[in-house]
Amino acid sequence: MAETGERGHGGAGAVVSLGDSWENDDGAAGPRPEDDTGRGIVVAFGQTMKTLRLRQGLEREEFGRRLGYSASTIASFEQGRRIPTPRTIERADDELGADGLLCLWKEQLERAQYPVFFQGMATLEKEAMELVSYSTLVFNGLVQTEEYMRAVLAMRCPILDEETIEQRVAARLARQVILDGRPAPLLSFVIGEAVLRHRYGGRDVLRGQLEHLLLIGQKRNVVIQVMPLDCEDNAGVDGPFTIVTRKDGKKFVYAEAQGTSALQTDPEQTALAGARYGIIRSQALSPRESLELIEGLLGSL
Asked: In Gene Ontology terms, what is one molecular function of this protein (predicted)?
């Protein structure tokens, strides 16, 4: 859910992170562990995979060829420096005759790509029955194009190195599977008009982002609305936030600003946030009017 923040502070229930991930040189081998706890899990998995490989009498080169990876990538897996994708784990399990032993690690490895303080949020997104978001500074990460992501991350201060930018881009792209989830979650995005006008990364980046937004807005489970600049009333003056409703009906409110983030689970606060979002939606342009505005801005670029 995070768009720009990295770390969090505050009382109980604070959760923060982008859930950054990593693609290796082979293109899609998966993320790397983000903290010591996750690293321990990944190292243990790697040692298990290496033991099974040696029992089969396979060299890394041959094992990598069977999985479609280089020997160096296999070494990264075995040394706990990279996390294989779920599909790769399944193929490795089959090739090594592990009878499901490696597959038992899939859920733990998936969590390990995130810092401890974001693992709950990463799970929450996948369990979302509904996700609604109000954006005032940048587009929500779930609807950003890859080019827009890079542009925004490149403007961070202090400056992020290229490797970190790549990790965070991969993370945001991976989280966008929620847009096509089955069953499809209900998704609502109210976006401040100023966000639609900021040319972060240049004219071409914004054009691509607006075109992407129009495509997303055509999905039956997605509603996009714009809060116009000339609005005289706005219940969202306190800033951006996101509300996630889990399949069991429990609601969570996420907000971040200037490097601090928090996840609110108090029923009273989540109910108030839900009511506030409802008012924001009523004050924004209708979905049809919003898409017409976006088309107009796109035509002016």
From this structure: DNA binding
